[in-house]
Amino acid sequence: MFLRRFEPRTGRTTAEVINFVMWPLAVMTVIHRIVVKAVNGSITDDYAPVYNAALAFLNRQDVYTANFNSVDPHYLYPPSGTMLLAPIAVLDPEKSRWLFILANAVAVIIALFILLKMFDLAWTSIAAPILIFAAFSTETVSNTLIFSNINGLILLAEVAFLFLLLRKKDLWAGAAIGLTFAIKPILAPLLLLPLVRGQWKVFVTAIGIPLVLMAVAWPLAADPMAFIDHTFPYLMESRDYFNSAIVGNGTYFGLPVGMIWALRIAFAAMGAVSLWLLYRYYRHDELFFVTTTAGLLMVGSFLLLSLGQMYYSMLLFPLLMTVVLRNSVMRNWPAWLAAYGFLSADAWFSTRFVEEGRAVEYLKPTYGWSLLIVVIFSVLVNRYLTAKREGRLDKGIDPDFLVAVDAPTDATVPAKV
After folding, report:
1. Helix (H, G, I), strand (E, B) or coil at 115
2. Which of 98, 128, 322, 383 has the least C-beta neighbours within 10 A?
3. Which residues in the chain land under pLDDT 70?
4. How many helices (H) and strands (E) does the chain have?
5. Buried b vs exposed e over 203-227: b needs ≥16 C-beta within 10 Å?
6. Is 258 exposed, middle or buried (0-12, 13-18, 19+ CB in 10 A)?
7. What is the structure's pLDDT at 7?
8. pTM score, two decimals?
9. Cα–Cα distance between 104 and 110 in angstroms, integer?
Protein backbone atom coordinates (compact mmCIF):
# COMPACT_ATOMS: atom_id res chain seq x y z
CA MET A 1 0.00 0.00 0.00
CA PHE A 2 2.85 2.39 0.87
CA LEU A 3 4.51 2.00 -2.55
CA ARG A 4 1.25 2.78 -4.34
CA ARG A 5 1.77 6.43 -3.39
CA PHE A 6 4.76 6.51 -5.75
CA GLU A 7 3.00 4.84 -8.66
CA PRO A 8 3.07 7.13 -11.72
CA ARG A 9 -0.27 8.38 -12.86
CA THR A 10 -1.58 6.35 -15.79
CA GLY A 11 -3.19 8.10 -18.72
CA ARG A 12 -6.82 7.19 -19.18
CA THR A 13 -7.59 9.17 -22.32
CA THR A 14 -5.73 9.54 -25.59
CA ALA A 15 -5.01 13.20 -24.80
CA GLU A 16 -3.55 12.31 -21.39
CA VAL A 17 -1.35 9.61 -22.90
CA ILE A 18 -0.03 11.98 -25.57
CA ASN A 19 0.68 14.63 -22.92
CA PHE A 20 2.52 12.10 -20.76
CA VAL A 21 4.60 11.04 -23.77
CA MET A 22 5.32 14.47 -25.21
CA TRP A 23 6.01 16.68 -22.18
CA PRO A 24 9.14 14.78 -21.05
CA LEU A 25 10.40 14.71 -24.64
CA ALA A 26 9.72 18.44 -25.03
CA VAL A 27 11.30 19.47 -21.72
CA MET A 28 14.42 17.35 -22.19
CA THR A 29 14.85 18.56 -25.77
CA VAL A 30 14.69 22.19 -24.60
CA ILE A 31 17.20 21.52 -21.80
CA HIS A 32 19.55 19.69 -24.19
CA ARG A 33 19.44 22.48 -26.77
CA ILE A 34 20.21 25.12 -24.14
CA VAL A 35 22.60 23.44 -21.71
CA VAL A 36 24.53 21.21 -24.12
CA LYS A 37 24.23 22.29 -27.76
CA ALA A 38 24.05 26.05 -27.21
CA VAL A 39 26.61 26.25 -24.40
CA ASN A 40 29.00 24.08 -26.42
CA GLY A 41 28.62 26.54 -29.29
CA SER A 42 29.95 26.20 -32.81
CA ILE A 43 32.66 27.45 -35.10
CA THR A 44 30.02 29.96 -36.22
CA ASP A 45 29.77 32.56 -33.46
CA ASP A 46 27.19 35.29 -34.06
CA TYR A 47 27.50 36.53 -30.48
CA ALA A 48 31.15 37.62 -30.30
CA PRO A 49 30.76 40.50 -32.82
CA VAL A 50 27.66 41.72 -30.98
CA TYR A 51 29.37 41.55 -27.59
CA ASN A 52 32.47 43.33 -28.88
CA ALA A 53 30.34 46.05 -30.45
CA ALA A 54 28.37 46.50 -27.22
CA LEU A 55 31.60 46.73 -25.23
CA ALA A 56 33.04 49.26 -27.66
CA PHE A 57 29.84 51.32 -27.48
CA LEU A 58 29.95 51.44 -23.68
CA ASN A 59 33.60 52.52 -23.81
CA ARG A 60 32.97 55.16 -26.50
CA GLN A 61 35.16 53.32 -29.00
CA ASP A 62 34.62 52.73 -32.72
CA VAL A 63 32.03 50.04 -33.45
CA TYR A 64 31.86 49.79 -37.24
CA THR A 65 35.31 48.44 -38.04
CA ALA A 66 34.44 45.03 -39.60
CA ASN A 67 36.55 43.65 -42.43
CA PHE A 68 33.95 42.58 -44.98
CA ASN A 69 36.50 40.68 -47.03
CA SER A 70 36.32 37.81 -44.53
CA VAL A 71 33.45 35.33 -44.19
CA ASP A 72 33.36 35.57 -40.39
CA PRO A 73 30.15 36.92 -38.81
CA HIS A 74 30.11 40.72 -39.00
CA TYR A 75 28.47 43.30 -36.78
CA LEU A 76 25.76 44.98 -38.86
CA TYR A 77 23.27 46.57 -36.42
CA PRO A 78 22.70 50.36 -36.47
CA PRO A 79 23.55 52.60 -33.50
CA SER A 80 20.01 52.22 -32.10
CA GLY A 81 20.44 48.43 -32.00
CA THR A 82 23.90 48.78 -30.47
CA MET A 83 22.48 50.95 -27.70
CA LEU A 84 19.67 48.47 -26.96
CA LEU A 85 22.13 45.58 -26.79
CA ALA A 86 24.84 47.46 -24.90
CA PRO A 87 23.85 46.06 -21.45
CA ILE A 88 25.04 42.59 -22.50
CA ALA A 89 28.62 43.83 -22.18
CA VAL A 90 28.24 44.58 -18.48
CA LEU A 91 28.99 40.91 -17.72
CA ASP A 92 31.98 38.87 -18.84
CA PRO A 93 31.59 37.30 -22.31
CA GLU A 94 30.81 33.75 -21.16
CA LYS A 95 28.12 34.59 -18.62
CA SER A 96 26.69 37.24 -20.94
CA ARG A 97 26.42 34.69 -23.77
CA TRP A 98 24.73 32.15 -21.52
CA LEU A 99 22.13 34.72 -20.43
CA PHE A 100 21.58 35.72 -24.06
CA ILE A 101 21.01 32.08 -25.02
CA LEU A 102 18.55 31.70 -22.15
CA ALA A 103 16.73 34.91 -23.09
CA ASN A 104 16.26 33.71 -26.67
CA ALA A 105 15.12 30.25 -25.57
CA VAL A 106 12.57 31.76 -23.18
CA ALA A 107 11.46 34.15 -25.93
CA VAL A 108 10.83 31.22 -28.28
CA ILE A 109 8.78 29.40 -25.64
CA ILE A 110 6.72 32.51 -24.86
CA ALA A 111 6.15 33.04 -28.60
CA LEU A 112 4.91 29.45 -28.93
CA PHE A 113 2.44 29.90 -26.08
CA ILE A 114 1.17 33.14 -27.65
CA LEU A 115 0.69 31.20 -30.88
CA LEU A 116 -1.34 28.60 -28.98
CA LYS A 117 -3.53 31.35 -27.58
CA MET A 118 -3.85 32.99 -30.98
CA PHE A 119 -5.22 29.74 -32.39
CA ASP A 120 -7.44 29.08 -29.34
CA LEU A 121 -5.39 26.13 -28.15
CA ALA A 122 -4.85 25.69 -24.40
CA TRP A 123 -1.38 25.15 -22.95
CA THR A 124 -2.85 22.04 -21.29
CA SER A 125 -3.76 20.59 -24.68
CA ILE A 126 -1.63 18.09 -26.56
CA ALA A 127 -0.68 20.88 -28.96
CA ALA A 128 1.62 22.54 -26.39
CA PRO A 129 4.24 19.80 -25.87
CA ILE A 130 4.07 18.78 -29.53
CA LEU A 131 4.72 22.37 -30.62
CA ILE A 132 7.61 22.90 -28.19
CA PHE A 133 9.23 19.56 -29.08
CA ALA A 134 8.86 20.22 -32.80
CA ALA A 135 10.17 23.80 -32.59
CA PHE A 136 13.28 22.93 -30.57
CA SER A 137 14.00 20.00 -32.89
CA THR A 138 14.35 22.30 -35.90
CA GLU A 139 17.54 23.71 -37.37
CA THR A 140 16.23 27.23 -36.97
CA VAL A 141 15.75 27.14 -33.18
CA SER A 142 18.79 24.92 -32.57
CA ASN A 143 21.19 27.11 -34.56
CA THR A 144 19.70 30.32 -33.20
CA LEU A 145 20.73 29.11 -29.75
CA ILE A 146 24.01 27.49 -30.84
CA PHE A 147 25.16 30.51 -32.85
CA SER A 148 23.75 32.75 -30.08
CA ASN A 149 21.92 35.27 -32.23
CA ILE A 150 18.84 37.37 -31.60
CA ASN A 151 16.29 35.53 -33.75
CA GLY A 152 14.41 34.12 -30.76
CA LEU A 153 13.59 37.62 -29.55
CA ILE A 154 12.68 38.62 -33.11
CA LEU A 155 10.24 35.69 -33.26
CA LEU A 156 8.63 36.83 -30.01
CA ALA A 157 8.26 40.36 -31.41
CA GLU A 158 6.72 38.99 -34.63
CA VAL A 159 4.18 36.82 -32.83
CA ALA A 160 3.34 39.63 -30.39
CA PHE A 161 2.85 41.98 -33.35
CA LEU A 162 0.42 39.58 -35.08
CA PHE A 163 -1.41 38.82 -31.84
CA LEU A 164 -1.86 42.51 -30.96
CA LEU A 165 -2.76 43.39 -34.56
CA LEU A 166 -5.60 40.85 -34.50
CA ARG A 167 -6.87 42.33 -31.24
CA LYS A 168 -6.71 45.90 -32.61
CA LYS A 169 -4.07 46.96 -30.08
CA ASP A 170 -2.44 49.04 -32.77
CA LEU A 171 0.02 51.16 -30.80
CA TRP A 172 1.29 48.14 -28.88
CA ALA A 173 1.56 46.12 -32.09
CA GLY A 174 3.63 48.92 -33.60
CA ALA A 175 5.82 49.03 -30.51
CA ALA A 176 6.54 45.30 -30.75
CA ILE A 177 7.69 45.48 -34.36
CA GLY A 178 9.28 48.92 -33.95
CA LEU A 179 11.76 47.58 -31.39
CA THR A 180 12.96 45.05 -33.96
CA PHE A 181 13.43 47.81 -36.56
CA ALA A 182 15.83 49.49 -34.15
CA ILE A 183 18.03 46.38 -34.46
CA LYS A 184 17.35 44.99 -37.93
CA PRO A 185 14.45 45.46 -40.38
CA ILE A 186 13.81 41.78 -41.09
CA LEU A 187 10.10 42.11 -40.17
CA ALA A 188 9.54 45.19 -42.35
CA PRO A 189 7.43 43.29 -44.96
CA LEU A 190 4.82 42.69 -42.26
CA LEU A 191 3.89 46.37 -42.31
CA LEU A 192 1.82 45.53 -45.38
CA LEU A 193 -0.71 43.96 -43.00
CA PRO A 194 -1.70 47.11 -41.07
CA LEU A 195 -1.51 49.03 -44.34
CA VAL A 196 -4.15 46.94 -46.10
CA ARG A 197 -6.22 46.56 -42.90
CA GLY A 198 -6.29 50.31 -42.31
CA GLN A 199 -4.71 50.08 -38.84
CA TRP A 200 -2.82 53.35 -39.22
CA LYS A 201 -1.88 53.79 -35.56
CA VAL A 202 0.54 50.88 -35.92
CA PHE A 203 2.83 53.13 -37.95
CA VAL A 204 3.03 55.73 -35.17
CA THR A 205 5.01 53.45 -32.88
CA ALA A 206 6.46 51.16 -35.56
CA ILE A 207 8.26 54.11 -37.14
CA GLY A 208 8.46 56.45 -34.15
CA ILE A 209 10.22 54.08 -31.74
CA PRO A 210 13.22 53.26 -33.96
CA LEU A 211 13.55 56.94 -34.95
CA VAL A 212 13.59 58.04 -31.31
CA LEU A 213 16.06 55.31 -30.36
CA MET A 214 18.30 56.27 -33.27
CA ALA A 215 18.16 59.93 -32.24
CA VAL A 216 19.24 58.99 -28.72
CA ALA A 217 21.93 56.52 -29.81
CA TRP A 218 23.50 58.65 -32.55
CA PRO A 219 25.32 61.16 -30.28
CA LEU A 220 26.31 58.36 -27.87
CA ALA A 221 28.09 56.34 -30.56
CA ALA A 222 31.75 57.05 -31.27
CA ASP A 223 31.47 56.47 -35.03
CA PRO A 224 27.81 56.67 -36.14
CA MET A 225 28.67 57.90 -39.65
CA ALA A 226 30.76 54.77 -40.17
CA PHE A 227 27.50 52.80 -40.16
CA ILE A 228 26.34 54.87 -43.14
CA ASP A 229 29.66 54.97 -44.99
CA HIS A 230 31.09 51.52 -44.17
CA THR A 231 28.35 49.10 -43.05
CA PHE A 232 25.27 50.24 -44.95
CA PRO A 233 26.77 49.72 -48.43
CA TYR A 234 27.64 46.14 -47.43
CA LEU A 235 24.04 45.57 -46.32
CA MET A 236 22.90 46.51 -49.81
CA GLU A 237 25.09 43.86 -51.44
CA SER A 238 24.18 40.23 -52.15
CA ARG A 239 26.91 37.95 -50.86
CA ASP A 240 27.56 34.52 -52.35
CA TYR A 241 28.29 32.67 -49.08
CA PHE A 242 25.97 31.63 -46.24
CA ASN A 243 23.11 33.01 -48.32
CA SER A 244 20.16 30.79 -49.26
CA ALA A 245 18.30 33.48 -51.19
CA ILE A 246 17.99 32.90 -54.94
CA VAL A 247 20.61 35.54 -55.68
CA GLY A 248 23.03 34.09 -53.10
CA ASN A 249 22.87 30.44 -54.11
CA GLY A 250 22.48 31.35 -57.78
CA THR A 251 25.73 33.31 -57.65
CA TYR A 252 27.48 30.60 -55.62
CA PHE A 253 26.58 27.89 -58.15
CA GLY A 254 27.38 30.10 -61.13
CA LEU A 255 23.91 30.61 -62.61
CA PRO A 256 23.65 33.26 -65.34
CA VAL A 257 22.47 36.62 -64.09
CA GLY A 258 19.49 36.47 -66.46
CA MET A 259 18.37 33.15 -64.99
CA ILE A 260 18.68 34.47 -61.44
CA TRP A 261 16.48 37.44 -62.32
CA ALA A 262 14.01 35.22 -64.15
CA LEU A 263 13.63 33.02 -61.06
CA ARG A 264 13.21 36.03 -58.78
CA ILE A 265 10.59 37.56 -61.07
CA ALA A 266 8.70 34.27 -61.42
CA PHE A 267 8.48 33.70 -57.67
CA ALA A 268 7.64 37.37 -57.08
CA ALA A 269 4.76 37.03 -59.55
CA MET A 270 3.44 33.91 -57.77
CA GLY A 271 3.70 35.72 -54.47
CA ALA A 272 1.89 38.78 -55.78
CA VAL A 273 -0.99 36.70 -57.19
CA SER A 274 -1.25 34.83 -53.88
CA LEU A 275 -1.31 38.08 -51.91
CA TRP A 276 -4.09 39.43 -54.13
CA LEU A 277 -6.20 36.28 -53.70
CA LEU A 278 -5.67 36.35 -49.95
CA TYR A 279 -6.72 40.00 -49.74
CA ARG A 280 -9.62 39.65 -52.17
CA TYR A 281 -11.20 36.56 -50.65
CA TYR A 282 -9.85 36.07 -47.12
CA ARG A 283 -9.28 39.46 -45.52
CA HIS A 284 -12.43 39.07 -43.40
CA ASP A 285 -11.22 35.67 -42.14
CA GLU A 286 -8.80 37.57 -39.93
CA LEU A 287 -6.75 34.82 -38.29
CA PHE A 288 -6.22 32.92 -41.54
CA PHE A 289 -5.53 36.09 -43.52
CA VAL A 290 -3.05 37.66 -41.10
CA THR A 291 -1.03 34.51 -40.36
CA THR A 292 -0.98 33.19 -43.93
CA THR A 293 -0.14 36.58 -45.42
CA ALA A 294 2.57 37.12 -42.81
CA GLY A 295 4.14 33.79 -43.69
CA LEU A 296 3.99 34.49 -47.42
CA LEU A 297 5.57 37.92 -46.96
CA MET A 298 8.37 36.53 -44.84
CA VAL A 299 9.21 33.55 -47.05
CA GLY A 300 9.14 35.83 -50.08
CA SER A 301 11.62 38.19 -48.42
CA PHE A 302 13.96 35.31 -47.54
CA LEU A 303 13.91 33.97 -51.08
CA LEU A 304 13.79 37.12 -53.20
CA LEU A 305 15.80 39.77 -51.38
CA SER A 306 19.57 40.04 -51.01
CA LEU A 307 20.04 37.79 -47.96
CA GLY A 308 18.20 34.71 -46.72
CA GLN A 309 19.60 32.43 -44.03
CA MET A 310 18.06 29.12 -43.05
CA TYR A 311 17.57 30.03 -39.39
CA TYR A 312 15.31 32.92 -40.43
CA SER A 313 12.70 30.19 -41.02
CA MET A 314 11.68 30.45 -37.38
CA LEU A 315 9.63 33.44 -38.47
CA LEU A 316 7.39 31.08 -40.48
CA PHE A 317 6.03 29.39 -37.33
CA PRO A 318 2.75 31.40 -37.46
CA LEU A 319 2.14 30.17 -41.01
CA LEU A 320 2.91 26.57 -40.05
CA MET A 321 0.47 26.83 -37.14
CA THR A 322 -2.37 27.53 -39.58
CA VAL A 323 -2.43 23.79 -40.22
CA VAL A 324 -4.99 23.60 -37.40
CA LEU A 325 -7.39 25.76 -39.45
CA ARG A 326 -9.78 23.93 -41.77
CA ASN A 327 -8.99 26.15 -44.76
CA SER A 328 -5.22 26.21 -44.21
CA VAL A 329 -2.92 26.12 -47.23
CA MET A 330 -0.64 23.87 -45.18
CA ARG A 331 -2.93 20.81 -45.19
CA ASN A 332 -1.10 18.91 -47.93
CA TRP A 333 2.09 16.88 -48.17
CA PRO A 334 4.07 19.21 -50.50
CA ALA A 335 3.76 21.99 -47.90
CA TRP A 336 5.48 19.81 -45.31
CA LEU A 337 8.07 18.59 -47.79
CA ALA A 338 8.86 22.29 -48.16
CA ALA A 339 8.97 22.66 -44.37
CA TYR A 340 11.48 19.81 -44.21
CA GLY A 341 13.73 21.77 -46.52
CA PHE A 342 13.93 24.88 -44.38
CA LEU A 343 13.45 23.38 -40.89
CA SER A 344 15.29 20.06 -40.84
CA ALA A 345 18.65 19.86 -39.09
CA ASP A 346 19.63 16.85 -41.25
CA ALA A 347 23.03 17.30 -42.93
CA TRP A 348 23.15 16.02 -46.50
CA PHE A 349 26.92 16.02 -46.96
CA SER A 350 27.90 12.61 -48.34
CA THR A 351 31.28 10.88 -48.54
CA ARG A 352 30.00 8.78 -51.45
CA PHE A 353 28.05 11.41 -53.41
CA VAL A 354 30.20 14.42 -52.62
CA GLU A 355 29.00 17.01 -55.16
CA GLU A 356 25.36 15.94 -55.04
CA GLY A 357 25.32 15.96 -51.24
CA ARG A 358 26.93 19.39 -51.08
CA ALA A 359 24.40 20.79 -53.55
CA VAL A 360 21.43 19.40 -51.62
CA GLU A 361 22.83 20.65 -48.31
CA TYR A 362 23.34 24.19 -49.58
CA LEU A 363 20.11 24.33 -51.59
CA LYS A 364 17.56 22.66 -49.30
CA PRO A 365 16.38 25.89 -47.62
CA THR A 366 16.15 27.55 -51.04
CA TYR A 367 14.18 24.58 -52.37
CA GLY A 368 11.98 24.61 -49.27
CA TRP A 369 11.12 28.30 -49.46
CA SER A 370 10.54 28.03 -53.22
CA LEU A 371 8.25 25.02 -52.86
CA LEU A 372 6.28 26.74 -50.11
CA ILE A 373 5.54 29.70 -52.39
CA VAL A 374 4.55 27.29 -55.17
CA VAL A 375 2.23 25.43 -52.76
CA ILE A 376 0.51 28.58 -51.50
CA PHE A 377 0.13 29.88 -55.06
CA SER A 378 -1.19 26.54 -56.37
CA VAL A 379 -3.67 26.03 -53.53
CA LEU A 380 -5.13 29.52 -53.80
CA VAL A 381 -5.27 29.60 -57.60
CA ASN A 382 -6.88 26.15 -57.70
CA ARG A 383 -9.48 27.28 -55.17
CA TYR A 384 -10.16 30.39 -57.25
CA LEU A 385 -10.52 28.49 -60.52
CA THR A 386 -12.74 25.85 -58.91
CA ALA A 387 -15.01 28.47 -57.34
CA LYS A 388 -15.16 30.38 -60.62
CA ARG A 389 -16.07 27.24 -62.55
CA GLU A 390 -18.81 26.44 -60.02
CA GLY A 391 -20.14 29.99 -60.11
CA ARG A 392 -19.66 30.74 -56.41
CA LEU A 393 -16.95 33.42 -56.37
CA ASP A 394 -19.36 35.79 -54.63
CA LYS A 395 -19.33 33.38 -51.67
CA GLY A 396 -15.56 33.04 -51.49
CA ILE A 397 -13.08 30.47 -52.69
CA ASP A 398 -12.91 28.03 -49.78
CA PRO A 399 -12.65 24.43 -51.04
CA ASP A 400 -15.86 22.62 -51.85
CA PHE A 401 -15.65 20.25 -48.89
CA LEU A 402 -15.66 23.24 -46.53
CA VAL A 403 -18.53 24.84 -48.41
CA ALA A 404 -20.45 21.58 -48.05
CA VAL A 405 -19.72 21.47 -44.32
CA ASP A 406 -20.85 25.06 -43.84
CA ALA A 407 -24.00 24.61 -45.90
CA PRO A 408 -27.24 23.92 -43.99
CA THR A 409 -28.17 20.27 -43.67
CA ASP A 410 -31.61 18.84 -44.39
CA ALA A 411 -32.28 18.82 -40.66
CA THR A 412 -31.72 22.57 -40.42
CA VAL A 413 -33.63 23.59 -43.55
CA PRO A 414 -37.14 24.77 -42.59
CA ALA A 415 -39.85 22.44 -43.88
CA LYS A 416 -41.99 23.81 -46.66
CA VAL A 417 -45.52 24.66 -45.59
Report:
1. helix
2. 98
3. 1-7, 11, 403-417
4. 20, 0
5. eebbeebbeebbeebeeebebbebb
6. exposed
7. 62
8. 0.93
9. 10
